[in-house]
Amino acid sequence: MGLLPQTVFAGTNGPEAAVAGPRETLLLNKGWRFFDGDIPFPIIVGHGATYNAAKAGSAQGAAATGYDDSEWPPVSLPHDFVSFQPIVEDANVSQGYRKRGIVWYRNTLRFEKADNGKHIELQLDGIATNATVWFNGTLVARNWSGYNSVYIDLTPYATYGDLVNSLVIRVDANAMEGWWYEGGGIYRDAWIVKRNPVHIVTDGVFAHPIKDDEGWKIPVEVTLNNTGLSDSQVTVISRLWDKRAAGVLSGIAAEVQATTKVSALENAVVHMELAHGSTLTNPALWSVDNPELYEVHTRVEQDGKLLDEITTTCGFRTQRFDVDKGFFLNDKHLKIQGVCIHQDHAGVGVAVPDGVIDFRLRRLKELGCNAIRFSHNAQSRALMDACDRHGFLVMAENRVFNPALIHMAELQWLVRRDRNHPSVYLWSVFNEEPMQGTEAGYQMVRRMSEAVKELDTSRPVTAAMNDGLFTPLNVAHAVDVVGINYQQDQYDAFHKAHPTIPVFSSEDTSAFMTRGVYKTDMDKHVSASYDDDAADWGATHCKAWKAIATRDYIAGGFVWTGFDYHGEPTPYIWPSNSSVFGIMDLCGFEKAAFWIHQAQWVKDRPVLGLVPHWNWETAGQPVRVMACSNQEEVELFVNGKSAGRQKVDPYEMNFWTVPYAPGAIEVRGYTGGKVVRTTRNETTGEPLALRLTADRAGLKADGRDAQPLTVEAIDKKGRHVPLAQHMITYEISGGAIVGLGNGDANSLEPEKGDKRSLYNGYGQVIVQSLEGQAGTLRIRATAPGLKAADLRLPVEATAPLAYQVTTPSVQLLDSWFMAPMSVTRPDPGQKAADNDMNSWQWFRPGTLNRPLDQDGYSLVAVRYAPFAKVQKAGGKVEFLGITGACEVYENGKLIGTKTDAAPGALTLDLPALSGERRLSVLFKVRAGEAYGFNGQIRTRSKT
Ligand code: GAL
């Protein structure tokens, strides 16, 4: 995901000044410390402690500001901790036999003095699963879905300058929302966004072009918020930028503005309309083949001063469903050639780098796919942006079927975040729900559909139904378009019973295929590549598409699935730990299903797949050969001799059975009687060497850019050896390995580290750049008996990404209590009665105490257990700001004195001592003079 705008652009009237908006968007992916396990909250017994624990800022245990996390290992986001766990038989099968559990993350943030007065928001893009978030010891969010983002206003609690802020997240990944691998932890990006108190709220601009009888227009809705102290009168300006002409922003295509009052601590919503202007008369349309994108720049100004600014992307396209003819994009018929996918990938679990997201979408383009159903949940922003860029229609799907407030908020968040994407063409409120055929289901969907339409009326609402289609009242009556999962034999009956409801296949196929395997073996948990095996509820790739392609009223379909995914192994279980439904395997390597769908879907170029390889053991053994072609005829040649020419079956593919003889098989595809494409599989020699192939020519040195590399074994002629299973070891410099895969659904090998075997000829290693280390990434792959492969990838210097400043762990002492002022000198060890909440006062450091009327003493104290290192070897206590003369005691023993009454800092030694201790400060107060702590108090170890 790119950073939000600090855009420099050129206008039609010459270059406009660089607009460095006051908004700062900073990644918060660094500085995290991680604990792999739960830390139960302490059981509180005393009344005073109970009273204090119930207060803001007083989170207990590992959520406390002063908790010792200094020994926790550092981690960077995105972090799917489950992907690091071993695959074990007693773990959950649906989640890929990986242990989940409860974990903790802590971070320490420092904001600049100049940030004081800004609006500061924490954005957590995705945490699996149940997350509890504390900021400076105060509970700030509970988020019970692993798929939606959380935006948290930190402004009221934040501290600035030398003061640091504690951020703690407890993640309960034992909670599951799905029946597939969901990963665990803070697995998407985290951000800190600093804005003017008067600002555009997150996801607060809706600017999606629509076309009506008068032509194109963009209704613009801008939601503003004001956390400042006074009401503000502002001007909101939205401009459509036409960035055609080789990607250069060439000018303002339309502009609109409005003024509004944003009252303090309130939202204001502005409605405007971008209309007129040549671009709007004749915009370049977004389509799956030409995904033309435009930008809307929205600014908030006050008396000519820029307060906030944001860029949203949009695309001009129309869509409609016809009950008889299916789907139309820009008034052109488009059969939906879609795939369902989950969000994980080999090696990285659900923490998928943007570079791998891009790779996956390019693979789907090559397949001829034009639509993706994001089953069954919201995806990352980066993935949604990439769908706009690559030209995929997206069926965006909600996770939980429930109109209760908490889940309605998740649904509305999804629509609000994703409604600008031209790719989104359907909002799906559920997948396969037992209540789908009931009146209760109908009532639930009515409400959810309404919640969607409150925010967007330009896309229909749908639901993926696997039953209940024919009951008197069911969800089909509450959606605009019906999605049918499987039940292909019910299509005609449904269409007949509901001639006014558009319908499509929201899910079909669920066929089994293991890459590089040509004989199904139930004992070995592998399925052959001839498309013979499918789940009882599903159909083969060929048959499922045939049912869709031969019915005009079915708008298209979504194959289950585009890629294999971790978890839900079917039909096999342990040690199978990932699915084999994919058209591609877990790494994105093509299976035979890839050629089948290419033959069915690709129209603009000849495709010709040939199955199987030609490395068999016994001469004469009969081998089944399959050709997948989008031409008119295909002819198979075995060692140069024709085995027969056949008319292409565009749905069921073409087959021959021929005796094996080493050499080659070749298939020729004919159109108009001429050979337009030839594919050849040769018998290879023994594997001799390894080969590494990059996905892209290089990487950017931002520490974030990543890409998959392919490793394979080759023979002496450089030919891919299809059955090689060698264990490969990698050595890398100038980059890092973030994951390993090979597409073997039965492998128990870790996906992390530096070793992974090939599976049927292929392996994948995902490499990432190191931050600030431009130059060359070097990677070497070795395997016993094979010549090593070396690959060099140029790593290009790039502007560093903007990160939020974080600091090492700090123990803050922030829960103090104060004795009543006394005229005579009190005993510094004096304590309050445990049930006395009022003669002693609990307080937080940072503000001076008001002056007293007469000279006297004020005793303040804190109980705490120093970090383990300090307990062991002693350390320091730092008073960052202390005003007034005082004596400091530890467990009743004087450890320091401040004789000067003026404000200043004080650092004192702390002795080694295990367990809890009491620190007290006895102020000698002079009448009329303020005193106390005007800064944080923290401890640190000596080292
Ligand atoms: C469907 C379901 C998918 C997946 C698939 C496997 O019923 O919607 O999530 O479980 O079956 O065939």
From TrEMBL:
<feature type="domain" description="Glycoside hydrolase family 2">
    <location>
        <begin position="690"/>
        <end position="791"/>
    </location>
</feature>
<dbReference type="Pfam" id="PF16355">
    <property type="entry name" value="DUF4982"/>
</dbReference>
<dbReference type="Pfam" id="PF18565">
    <property type="entry name" value="Glyco_hydro2_C5"/>
</dbReference>
<dbReference type="InterPro" id="IPR006102">
    <property type="entry name" value="Ig-like_GH2"/>
</dbReference>
<dbReference type="InterPro" id="IPR017853">
    <property type="entry name" value="GH"/>
</dbReference>
<dbReference type="InterPro" id="IPR054593">
    <property type="entry name" value="Beta-mannosidase-like_N2"/>
</dbReference>
<feature type="domain" description="DUF4982">
    <location>
        <begin position="620"/>
        <end position="676"/>
    </location>
</feature>
<dbReference type="InterPro" id="IPR006101">
    <property type="entry name" value="Glyco_hydro_2"/>
</dbReference>
<feature type="domain" description="Beta-mannosidase-like galactose-binding">
    <location>
        <begin position="102"/>
        <end position="175"/>
    </location>
</feature>
<keyword id="KW-0326">Glycosidase</keyword>
<dbReference type="InterPro" id="IPR048230">
    <property type="entry name" value="GalA-like"/>
</dbReference>
<protein>
    <recommendedName>
        <fullName>Beta-galactosidase</fullName>
    </recommendedName>
</protein>
<dbReference type="InterPro" id="IPR040605">
    <property type="entry name" value="Glyco_hydro2_dom5"/>
</dbReference>
<comment type="similarity">
    <text>Belongs to the glycosyl hydrolase 2 family.</text>
</comment>
<dbReference type="GO" id="GO:0005975">
    <property type="term" value="P:carbohydrate metabolic process"/>
</dbReference>
<dbReference type="InterPro" id="IPR008979">
    <property type="entry name" value="Galactose-bd-like_sf"/>
</dbReference>
<dbReference type="InterPro" id="IPR051913">
    <property type="entry name" value="GH2_Domain-Containing"/>
</dbReference>
<dbReference type="InterPro" id="IPR036156">
    <property type="entry name" value="Beta-gal/glucu_dom_sf"/>
</dbReference>
<dbReference type="Pfam" id="PF22666">
    <property type="entry name" value="Glyco_hydro_2_N2"/>
</dbReference>
<feature type="domain" description="Glycoside hydrolase family 2 catalytic">
    <location>
        <begin position="324"/>
        <end position="561"/>
    </location>
</feature>
<keyword id="KW-0378">Hydrolase</keyword>
<dbReference type="InterPro" id="IPR013783">
    <property type="entry name" value="Ig-like_fold"/>
</dbReference>
<feature type="domain" description="Glycoside hydrolase family 2 immunoglobulin-like beta-sandwich">
    <location>
        <begin position="199"/>
        <end position="317"/>
    </location>
</feature>
<dbReference type="Pfam" id="PF02836">
    <property type="entry name" value="Glyco_hydro_2_C"/>
</dbReference>
<dbReference type="Pfam" id="PF00703">
    <property type="entry name" value="Glyco_hydro_2"/>
</dbReference>
<dbReference type="InterPro" id="IPR006103">
    <property type="entry name" value="Glyco_hydro_2_cat"/>
</dbReference>
<dbReference type="InterPro" id="IPR032311">
    <property type="entry name" value="DUF4982"/>
</dbReference>
<dbReference type="GO" id="GO:0004553">
    <property type="term" value="F:hydrolase activity, hydrolyzing O-glycosyl compounds"/>
</dbReference>
